[in-house]
Amino acid sequence: MAIIVTHVDKGGRFVVLGASVSKWATSTGHVLFGDLAPVEKSGVVRSVAVCGADGKIQFADADQLRVVSIDGKTPQELLGGGGA
Predict the structure, then answer these.
(1) Helix (H) or strand (E) segment spanning residue 19
(2) Which tens digit of pLDDT belongs to each residue from 43-57?
(3) Which residues fall within 8 angstroms of residue 40, CB to CB, at 6 or more apart?
(4) d(Cα 72, Cα 55) in Å, to the nearest integer?
(5) Which of 4, 9, 17, 77 has the fewest CB atoms within 10 Å of its CB?
(6) How far apart are CA 72 and CA 15, in angstroms?
(7) d(CA 72, CA 6)
(8) Distance CA 43, CA 58 (A)
(9) Half-sphere exposure of 25 (CA within 13 A, CB side)
């Protein structure tokens, strides 16, 4: 199955090789209260491994990609135009 995507900002067409979702969290001591009131940060990173015509593997933010076709058919053809 070949999934072809395009980059929203930069253009270009790429083949999807795989996808990943990673969660992260950090905790550092507060300036005045140290470990009693730590400053915590967390987030989620969604990335997609793609390659262009040159075969070079690249990683892109999932939010910056849009699906062009899946096995030669558009998402609308596969979902009947009513996909969410």
Answers:
(1) strand 13-30
(2) 999 999 999 999 999
(3) 25, 26, 27
(4) 19
(5) 9
(6) 12
(7) 14
(8) 22
(9) 4
Nearest to 2 by CA among 76, 82, 73: 73
- Which residues lie across from 45 on neighbouring strands? 22
Q: If pLDDT is split at 50, 70 and 90, which confidence band does 70 have?
A: very high
Dig out the tokens for 50 from the structure: 């793609």
| Encoded amino acid at 40, one letter | E
Q: Which amino acid is at 64?
A: Q
**What kind and span of H or E run contains 51?**
strand 34-51
- What is the CB neighbour count within 10 angstroms for residue 66? 10
